[in-house]
Design goal:
Strand order of the largest sheet: 1-2
Strand content: 5-15%
Order of helices and strands: HHHEE
Number of helices: 3
Radius of gyration: 16 Å
Shape: elongated
Helix content: 25-40%
Number of strands: 2
Length: 127
C-alpha cells in the first residue's frame, strides 16, 4: 500500500510543510538551522529542553525529517538502533509481536500484534 502514495500526496499543517522544505536543503546555513530549531520547538516544546544552543545547531545541521504512511512499519522490536525518533505530525502506534505485513492492505491491524501505546505529536514520548 505504501508504494501507491508519494510525499506530495500528503497534507500537512503549515509548520510541518515548512520543516519539510527546510530539511530538504542539503547545505544549511545558520539562518536555516535557527528557523528549524524554532519550528521544532513550536511543534514539540519540550523535545530540546536541556540542550545547549551549540548542540541544537549541531544536531540540526545533519538531522533528517522522515515521513511515514499510515500503517507503515517504522521499526520492529530487536532492530538495531539507527536514529532518534520523535513525532512531529500525526501519531505512531506501538504494537508487540509484529508479523510480516508486506501483503497487508485490508485495514486489519491485528497483524501488528497487541496494541501497546499511541505516541502523539509534540509529546515527550518515553517507550
Amino acid at each position: 500500500m505504501q508504494g501507491e502514495y508519494s510525499i506530495n500526496d500528503l497534507i500537512f499543517d503549515a509548520l510541518t510543510s515548512r520543516l519539510l522544505h527546510l530539511f530538504s536543503k542539503g547545505d544549511r546555513n545558520d539562518e536555516i538551522i535557527e528557523e528549524i530549531i524554532c519550528l521544532v520547538q513550536e511543534k514539540a516544546p519540550n523535545l530540546l529542553d536541556g540542550l545547549s544552543t551549540e548542540l541544537k545547531e549541531e544536531i540540526f545541521q545533519t538531522a533528517s525529517l522522515r515521513c511515514y504512511f499510515k500503517d507503515q512499519v517504522i521499526f520492529r522490536h530487536g532492530d538495531a538502533p539507527d536514529a532518534f525518533y520523535t513525532v512531529i505530525y500525526g501519531a505512531v502506534s506501538l504494537y508487540s509481536d509484529c508479523e510480516d505485513v508486506s501483503n497487508k492492505g485490508d485495514g486489519d491491524r491485528s497483524v501488528y500484534g497487541k496494541f501497546l501505546k499511541q505516541l502523539q505529536a509534540g509529546c515527550k514520548n518515553i517507550i
